[in-house]
Design a protein that fits this description.
This protein is of the alpha/beta class and about 375 residues long. The chain folds into two domains: about 190 residues, Rossmann fold; about 170 residues, Rossmann fold (3-Layer(aba) Sandwich), CATH 3.40.50.2000. Helix content is about 45%, strand content about 15%. It is built from 15 helices and 13 strands. Strand 9, helix 9 and strand 10 form a beta-alpha-beta unit. Helix 8 crosses helix 13. The protein binds ligand GMT. The site of ligand GMT has 19 residues, from helix 1.
């Protein structure tokens, strides 16, 4: 098939998944065209059957805000005309499904069916904005097929938009040959002594990630034992996090690693990943951690309970319950046998449910169904 995949280029699980899917499909012999607003952050060493098309932001003085959605639609239409895509698979309703809908009107004779994957934010957050509710519903309704990255997100979308159409649940996945525990003795030495456990958090530091809770959990754990905290990524909440680290006197024990492309390496140094998010439709970082045999302590929200089996591959606590999270972390650090068991079960769970073999096949089957229904 000739497949177009549209996604955001900025840091985030949706872009990571979209690029990984493009790569997996290309490996399986499909021709894949990635459409994005920049070079997606995981678009490195692309397969020869992967092509990148960047949307130029129109810069004209008549506009107060450059009309990115129009440029995206126009670019999609041009590409549909040139490449005759079998499928256009968009990641996020806003703006992608809307622009795809517009593009199809522009070139009806070349229009490709649209598959939309819901990743969370436009359902759980943006739908509360009165001006965005109708466009999101339109984007969903005009898609030929809709998928969600968790059953919880699919149910939320059905409830919020009173949808009549089905939403297929296709959980996210990782490349289990890349995300596998590595020998990182040298790297680890830069951040901690061999007997000091490392707690880790990876995100885009948006308020929804509740990164200050990571610091609070770590402060509690640190009161009980020597340990280090590694913070990976960057984003709008950084200043608050730095201030809290200073306020708690933890400067010596908290390392800021910034954006990293070698996530599997840094995860391999970690003893526990902390993900105390307010909302998380899936939690790709949790799967990446489990693949690297790092147990996860997370909040019981959104799709996280579909990823983490409480008491088997990690622990779940209520959002904001810092002391429960600190207790769970301590339990894992104090009991090495428990830690080993969680690590092994986490890896096993990823291989069974969140690996490319099964998930990519589900997308291919869906594409075929969509084509048959045309
Ligand atoms: O969580 C973010 O801030 C980024 C966002 C994205 O666009 O990548 O993540 C969403 O999609 C990911 C991939 O499906 C999921 O793993 C995240 O849970 C989801 N984030 C939220 O629901 C808040």
């Amino acid at each position: 098939m000739r497949i177009a995949i549209a996604c955001h280029s900025v840091l985030g699980g949706s872009g990571a998944l979209a690029v990984e899917l493009a790569r997996s499909l290309a490996h399986k012999g499909h021709e894949v065209h990635v459409i994005s607003d920049g070079v997606p952050f995981r678009f490195v060493r692309p397969h020869e059957k992967m092509f990148l098309h960047m949307v130029e932001l129109p810069q004209h003085h008549v506009f107060r805000y450059p009309p990115f959605e129009m440029a995206l639609a126009g670019t999609m239409a041009e590409l549909m005309k040139k490449y005759f895509f079998d499928i256009l698979h968009v990641h996020y309703v806003l703006p992608f499904a809307i622009s795809a809908y517009l593009a199809r009107q522009m070139v009806p004779e070349h229009s490709a069916p649209v598959v939309t994957t819901l990743h969370g934010t436009d359902i759980t957050q943006l739908s509360r904005d009165k001006a965005l509710f109708a466009p999101i519903r339109l984007g969903i309704e005009k898609s030929d097929a809709v998928t969600a990255v968790s059953a919880s997100l699919a149910a939320e979308a059905m409830r919020i938009f009173s949808l009549k159409k089905d939403i297929a649940v296709i959980h996210n996945y990782v490349d289990t040959s890349r995300y596998i525990r590595q020998d990182v003795t040298e790297l680890r030495r830069q951040y901690a002594d061999p007997d000091e456990p490392i707690l880790m958090h990876i995100s885009n530091f948006r308020p929804i990630k509740r990164v200050p809770d990571v610091i609070r959990v770590f402060a509690e754990v640190r009161r009980r034992r020597r340990a280090k905290l590694a913070l990976v990524g960057e984003g709008p909440g950084m200043a608050e996090v730095h201030a809290l680290v200073r306020e708690k006197g933890l400067e010596e024990d908290v390392h800021f690693l910034g954006k990293r492309s070698d996530v599997e390496m840094v995860l391999s140094m970690a003893d526990v990943l902390l993900l105390p998010s307010e909302q998380e439709s899936f939690g790709l970082a949790a799967v990446e951690a489990m693949a690297c045999e790092t147990p996860v302590v997370a909040s019981r929200t959104g799709g996280l309970p579909e990823v983490i089996v409480h008491g088997e591959t990690g622990f779940l606590a209520e959002v904001g319950d810092v002391s429960a999270m600190a207790d769970y972390v301590s339990q894992l650090l104090d009991d090495r046998a428990l830690h080993r068991a969680f690590a092994a079960k986490g890896r096993g769970r990823v291989e069974r449910y969140f690996s490319c073999t099964h998930q990519v096949q589900k997308y291919e089957e869906l594409y075929r169904q969509v084509l048959e229904n045309q």
